[in-house]
Design a protein that fits this description.
By secondary structure, the protein is an alpha+beta fold. It is built from seven helices and four strands. 13% of the residues are buried.
């Protein structure tokens, strides 16, 4: 996983390229959401009633949603009978409110599927079973485990800056001087 991240970061040199409008973080978030939606559809198709067993996947539709990283165009999976109702990005919703913090909070806390369910209810007002949450998170589980198991560097350089440059008038001339904060 580290080599993959290193390869990705080689192409991105500035904070704008990583965090900006079309940055790496936005691209990764988009992929995470799309994988979770695919997991939701898999759960829907697996648990449908016996008379609906002929239902199957039917490609994707495009949907533009607003997230905290700006506009994001998602590929929303759909089924042939049109009965799939996504929970993560509900139909007719154009805004993913607080998605980034919630995803980070869920994974950072190491929550179980039973702990995630109340979070989703708080977010979307939808009651979701623990088994469905499990199937959705299984779609991205490998990436999460690889990230958690990544080796850390022995040394991380840190630079502390303790001066502020200001314009000061000295003997009739304006010059920039460092003002040290202590």
């Amino acid at each position: 996983m580290d080599t993959l991240l290193d390869e990705l970061l080689e192409e991105y040199q500035t904070p704008e390229e990583i965090l900006g409008e079309s940055g790496l973080l936005k691209q990764l978030t988009k992929r995470l959401i799309e994988r979770a939606l695919a997991g939701e559809l898999s759960h829907h198709l697996k648990n449908q009633a016996e008379e609906e067993k002929r239902n199957s996947r039917n490609g994707y539709s495009k949907k533009t949603v607003q997230s905290e990283q700006g506009e994001m165009e998602l590929a929303i999976p759909r089924d042939r009978q049109g009965k799939f109702e996504p929970v993560l990005v509900p139909k007719n919703e154009r805004r993913i409110a607080g998605l980034d913090e919630k995803i980070l909070a869920l994974y950072a806390r190491g929550m179980s599927t039973r702990d995630i369910s109340p979070q989703l209810e708080e977010l979307y007002g939808a009651k979701v079973s623990a088994s469905m949450i499990s199937e959705v998170t299984d779609a991205v589980l490998e990436e999460v485990k690889a990230w958690q198991a990544r080796p850390l560097e022995e040394i991380y350089p840190i630079v502390y800056l303790d001066a502020l440059y200001v314009n000061i008038k000295v003997s009739g001339r304006i010059s920039k001087r460092a003002v040290y904060i202590s």
